[in-house]
Design goal:
The chain is built from ten helices and 16 strands. With 388 residues, the protein is α+β, with helices and mostly antiparallel strands. Helix 2 runs antiparallel to helix 3.
C-alpha cells in the first residue's frame, strides 16, 4: 500500500459530489497480539454504521451496499491485513475507493458528507510532527513515514534499488555492454563496504547506489513534501548520501550506526529525539508570529474569513482544534458561508476544509488541542502579506 501524499489529499478533496455520499472511515489497528484478529471485525462494524448513515441520508439500502462493496471486501482480504500501521483510513464514493495504512492512532470515526473528512489525517501533513527516516545500508534501504507517535515502512519496490548488489549488477551489465561495443571498462568492482577506509571504486559504487535511491525517494515519493528527512546509517555513509541528495529538507543531523537490526519503532524513537527540538521551535515561532501580527489585520479567528482565504491560498499559518467540527457549507462562487450547530446533509467540517486547502497551497497547519489554539477559539490564521 502506497504512502499517503499531498497528491492523494488533492484527489480526495476534489471528489465531493452533489449526491453527498462521500464516506470516510477511520479506525485504530492492532499490529500484534490477540487484537490483530479483531481488526476485520471492527471494520465490519464500522461499515454497518456507514450503511445506516447512508440510508439515513436518503440512499436505498441496495444503493448503500453497492457503494460500500469495495470496502466490504477488505475484512476477508488476508493480504490487506498483513501490512498494518497504527491506523486505517478508508474513503469511498461513487468515484473513489482508497484505503491507507498510516502511523496515526485514530479514534473510530464514520463520516458521510459532501466531501471526504480528512482532519484526522492532519498530523501526517502538519508542521509539528511529520517527518521521514531513510535507513541506509548495503543490504537494505528502508523509508519510514513518521508522525509524532509512530512510523510505518513505505514500500520501495520498483521505486529505488533495495540493496547495493542490485546497483552493482546493473552497472556491471552496462560496463560489459560498453566493453563489447568497444568501450574500455573491464574488471569487477567491489560490492562490499565496511568502514571509512574504503577505496575509490567502492565509494563510486555507493554513490551510484545512493543516486538511484535519491531519484526514487525524492522524485517519486517525496516530490510534494516539505517534511524533514533524517538519515540513518553508519557514519561514513552520511556525507556520501548528502553529495547526491536533491531533497531540500534533508535534516543535517542523523542517526549513526547500522540500521539493519533496528525495528521501525527503534528508529522512530531515536529520530524523534533528534527532530523534537526542531518541531518545538517551529511551533513556538508560529505562535509568536501570530501574537505579533494579531490586531494588525494580518490574522484572524473568524472562520467566515479564514475558509475563503484558505481556498484561495492566502494562509501562511493555520491552527485548528483537533476533535472539534464546525459544520456548514461554503459557496465557492459567492465566497459565502452558512454555519450550522449540527451537521446537515451535504455539510462540510469547515475546519477540515480550511486545513486541507492550506496544506495544498503549501501553508503550514498546526493541529492542536482546543486550548492551544491562539486567540482561544477553534481556529486561528496568519495571512500571507501579499494577500492583504
Amino acid at each position: 500500500m502506497n504512502i499517503l501524499s499531498k497528491g492523494d489529499l488533492k484527489v480526495l478533496l476534489g471528489k465531493g459530489n452533489e449526491a453527498c455520499v462521500s464516506v470516510s472511515i477511520y479506525m485504530a489497528t492492532q499490529r500484534s497480539g490477540s487484537g490483530v484478529q479483531q481488526n476485520p471485525i471492527r471494520l465490519r462494524n464500522l461499515l454497518r454504521d456507514a450503511e445506516e448513515r447512508l440510508v439515513a441520508h436518503g440512499l436505498r439500502r441496495t444503493e448503500a451496499k453497492r457503494l460500500l462493496a469495495p470496502a466490504a471486501r477488505l475484512p476477508e482480504d488476508d493480504l490487506f491485513w498483513r501490512h498494518q500501521s497504527e491506523g486505517l483510513a478508508i474513503f469511498v464514493s461513487q468515484e473513489v475507493f482508497q484505503a491507507y495504512h498510516v502511523p496515526l492512532d485514530f479514534k473510530e470515526t464514520v463520516v458521510v458528507a459532501n466531501r471526504f473528512h480528512i482532519k484526522p489525517l492532519l498530523p501526517i501533513f502538519s508542521g509539528d510532527g511529520s517527518f521521514y527516516i531513510l535507513a541506509l545500508s548495503q543490504n537494505k534501504i528502508r523509508l519510514l513515514q513518521c508522525s509524532h507517535y509512530a512510523a510505518r515502512e513505505v514500500d520501495l519496490a520498483g521505486i529505488a534499488p533495495l540493496n547495493l548488489a542490485e546497483t552493482i549488477s546493473h552497472h556491471e551489465t552496462q560496463r560489459q555492454e560498453s566493453h563489447h561495443r568497444g568501450g574500455s571498462g573491464s574488471g569487477r568492482e567491489s560490492t562490499v563496504f565496511h568502514g571509512q577506509n574504503i577505496g575509490d571504486e567502492a565509494k563510486n559504487n555507493i554513490s551510484r547506489y545512493f543516486q538511484q535511491v535519491n531519484n526514487g525517494v525524492h522524485h517519486q515519493i517525496l516530490k510534494e513534501e516539505n517534511a524533514p528527512l533524517i538519515l540513518a546509517g553508519v557514519d561514513f555513509l552520511h556525507p556520501i548520501y548528502k553529495t547526491v541528495n536533491t531533497y531540500p529538507h534533508l535534516f543535517d543531523k542523523g542517526i549513526n550506526g547500522n540500521p539493519e537490526d533496528l525495528s521501525a519503532e527503534e528508529l522512530h524513537k531515536q529520530a524523534w529525539e533528534i527532530i523534537k527540538p526542531f518541531f518545538e521551535k517551529s511551533h513556538l515561532e508560529a505562535v509568536a508570529e501570530y501574537n505579533q501580527q494579531a490586531g494588525g489585520g494580518h490574522t484572524s479567528n473568524n472562520i467566515r474569513e479564514i475558509v475563503p482565504k484558505a481556498y484561495q491560498g492566502g494562509i501562511k499559518l493555520l491552527f485548528v482544534a483537533l476533535g472539534i467540527q464546525e459544520w456548514g457549507t461554503f459557496d465557492l462562487k459567492s465566497n459565502t458561508i452558512d454555519l450550522h450547530e449540527k451537521a446537515q446533509p451535504c455539510d462540510d467540517d469547515l475546519l477540515d476544509f480550511a486545513a486541507a486547502y492550506t496544506i495544498i497551497h503549501r501553508g503550514t497547519v498546526y493541529a492542536v488541542k482546543p486550548e492551544d489554539v491562539p486567540g482561544g477559539l477553534t481556529v486561528a490564521a496568519v495571512f500571507h502579506r501579499e494577500d492583504l
